[in-house]
């Protein structure tokens, strides 16, 4: 454990998966913002942000409000100890990603399902039901007969163990919310792009790599055809979505605490064109389309659009264009990516 805890009033925030790609950005945004709304609907300063992850979150040494805790979300006692009895807000992001969960069923269920149960059990012991904002996924949709664009009304028919665990997590959190153990807000995320760092084990990882690598001057083999379409959301927008979902009054959400987030749909060919349009003076790496049948089949099975009218009505917005997604990456992350600072 590192960092010092501030005692006294204000919001005590915990981010599980707080060392991850979205978790770290979310933490920074919450710290910069400096306040969140408590269970009573009153704006409170941020007293502490605990970043709980299997690996230690780095880069927060200069903020005394931050505590980093290394531990396993699948360990119920550890989760109870980190959340304590007085967490105001829990952003539950700890997970292993799609392909990894598919390869290792036991690990996937332990982290992606048991981990969520552990958060719920810890919340049950608290005097005031905490707000819990959960990172679900459009992987809850799947199978034949899926419309090109999924909506709030599309039935959930996950076809992967990852999607099943996320769907179960949503249902368990909705139930716990109904029972008054906690105040849940579950967000179904489309693919977040542009991801920084190295490619991960998600079957969608190319949607970030084919923007990121060429802008860093690295050649990229794209494992799908130029016509392959994907619903995307930028890191900026998804962090805004987490905070907006946290801030919305429970009454506006009603009984059903799950929100589908609208993505911006772009084909791989359109992503390539946006990279070319926004390259400036940079010497780009080559983008070569070399479809891999396995990846192509997985991507073809996904909806190419997500349209979340409920989330939009609550003020959660999608990116305006694929160019905006590329520009946000250039503005926010390209220098760090080139320098290997992620
Ligand atoms: N990035 C996307 O495109 C996307 C899309 C849909 C849903 N999501 C969901 O959003 C959340 C965050 O995604 P991300 O892109 O930041 O992923 P990420 O892999 O960068 O972050 C997940 C974090 O969870 C941590 N973790 C893994 N096992 C753990 C364990 N046993 N105990 C504690 N922590 C553990 C990892 O170390 C990692 O830091 C995840 O729940 C993911 O399923 C992401």
Q: How are the SSEs placed, and which strands pair?
A:
Blueprint: E1 11-16, H1 21-33, E2 35-37, E3 43-53, E4 66-70, H2 76-83, E5 89-92, H3 98-103, H4 105-124, E6 131-137, E7 149-151, H5 161-178, E8 183-189, E9 191-192, H6 206-215, E10 220-222, E11 229-233, H7 235-247, H8 250-253, E12 258-260, E13 264-267, H9 268-277, E14 287-289, H10 293-300, E15 305-307, H11 309-313, H12 322-332, H13 334-339
Parallel strand pairs: 1-3, 1-5, 3-4, 5-6, 6-8, 7-15, 8-12, 9-11, 10-14
Antiparallel strand pairs: 2-3, 11-13
Helix pairs in contact: 1-7, 2-4, 4-5, 6-9
The chain binds nicotinamide-adenine-dinucleotide.
CATH fold-type name of the largest domain: Rossmann fold
Q: What percentage of the residues does DSSP assign to strands (E)?
A: 15-25%
Helix content: 25-40%
* Largest beta-sheet characterization: 8 strands, mixed
Number of helical segments with 4 or more residues:
13
> For the record, what CATH class of the largest domain applies?
Alpha Beta
> What is the CATH superfamily of the largest domain?
NAD(P)-binding Rossmann-like Domain
In the residues, how many domains can be counted?
2
**H/E element sequence:** EHEEEHEHHEEHEEHEEHHEEHEHEHHH
N→C terminal distance: 21 Å
Shape: globular
What is the gyration radius calculated from CA atoms?
Answer: 19 Å
Number of strands: 15
Structural class: alpha/beta
CATH architecture of the largest domain: 3-Layer(aba) Sandwich
Q: What is the mean predicted local confidence, pLDDT?
A: 94
